[in-house]
Amino acid sequence: MKSPSRNDQALITAGLGAAALLDQLASAVLVLDGALRIRYLNSATEMLFGASARRLMDTPLHALVSQGESLTERLLEALGSEAPYTERELHLNLESMVDPASVVVDCMVTPIRLTNGARALLLELHQQDRHLRISREENLQTQQQASRAVVRGLAHEIKNPLGGLRGAAQLLDAEIHDPELRDYTRVIMAEADRLQQLVDTLLGSNRLPRMVEVNVHEVMERVRTLVAAEGHPGISVRSNYDPSLPLLRADPDQLIQSVLNIVRNAIEAVLPQSRRHQPAEVVLITRAQRQFTIGHHRHRLVIRVDVVDNGPGIPADFAEQIFYPMVTGRAEGTGLGLSIAQDLIGRHGGTIECHSRPGETRFSIFLPLQQAQK
C-alpha distances in angstroms, 340 versus 57, 138, 193, 202? Predict the structure, then answer.
């Protein structure tokens, strides 16, 4: 085994230069001692395990990974033989401090020596499903852009004859004196106005975000107030906030509209349960995430807002379409709420993701806090 380099020693002692450099990596880097306890980790490791460095430090790896026995055996073998190895597409069931998760990683294990001569392991974890998520996100954005272009073109084609139709009905209404006949013309005008409003909603707002310093928790509490005013007995809407989050530059009105659309969808999902007097809950969560990629840009820090409900979940064959306009699972729905929310968050350089299974649907809003890294 080659002798440890200066970089290895700086890594173990968490030297400021090396630590700052490693914190910029998207890959998780951690060092395990002879008992396979975490002795060092970078920011990407915190994000992977969903917990802070303070809580992860000195924790045995098997306490964080549920299938840790077989992994522990391989790591101890590498520690004893001092032979590095690489394992591709390793499935890890992480017992996160917040939400259990399953990830797929490429794991590179390198035995090293600590400054006191003790054996240790350097682990590099490259999250493969992260790349799949980025690819899926790019495909979704491309499809949404194409879908919006078609909808906008169709909306403009509808608006012209619709205006003529309403104008003709208005002229006819002025010439007719029979009240019963005028009822018909007014129905035509009312329906034309309703269609005009629907078309305007499809086209969306052309107003650019008015960026100001925003406390994301004020946005969340405003949404809670609006939802409470609508009255949903039997549905619990509770919060789980990270009070340490910094201010965000955003348009508060557009953020409120985006989160409100998602929360209303969550409430609709659990409404049947509340009517059957079953537990119906929507949880609003805020967290910070480091080194998160949105589109082609990697951000040092993003704010993550989760809206989680305990409803029946979204069918897998329907989940890929939920952000398209006019796509809805409810007979009375317009299918515009999520499409508008994604569009408004996209104007802030962010994105919305959805993960669903029976009993839990999670919509996650990601908003950059700092400029993207090139």
Answer: 42, 18, 21, 9
pLDDT tens across 324-364, in order? 665 665 555 556 778 888 888 988 989 888 888 899 999 99
When the pLDDT of each residue in the chain is averaged and rounded to a whole number, the result is: 80
What is the predicted pLDDT for the residue at 3?
46
| Mean pLDDT, rounded, for 128-133 | 60
Specify the DSSP class assigned to residue 60.
B
Give phi and psi for 115, each to the nearest 5. Answer: -60, -25
Whole-Å CA distances, 80 to 30, 31, 66: 18, 16, 23
Return all residues near 358 (Cβ < 8 A) that are at least 6 apart. Answer: 312, 313
Contact between residue 338 and residue 265 where contact means Cβ atoms under 8 Å apart: yes
In angstroms, the CA 336 to CA 243 distance is 32
Q: How far is CA 305 from CA 63, 164, 170, 328, in A?
A: 27, 44, 47, 23
Is residue 114 pLDDT above 80, yes or no?
yes
pLDDT score for 15: 45
In tens, the pLDDT along 281-307 reads 999 999 988 767 777 677 888 999 999
Helix or strand holding residue 31 (H, E): strand 28-32
DSSP 245-307: PPPEEE-HHHHHHHHHHHHHHHHHHHHHHHHTT--EEEEEEEEEEEEEEETTEEEEEEEEEEE
Sheet architecture: strand order including 85-94: 38-41, 28-32, 119-127, 101-113, 85-94
DSSP strand pairing (351-357 vs 360-368)? antiparallel
Q: What is the pLDDT of residue 205?
A: 60
The set of long-range contacts for 64-73, using a CB threshold of 8 Å and a minimum separation of 24, is 64/94, 64/95, 65/92, 65/93, 65/94, 65/95, 66/93, 66/94, 66/95, 67/91, 67/92, 67/93, 72/36
Total residues found in the chain within this entry: 374
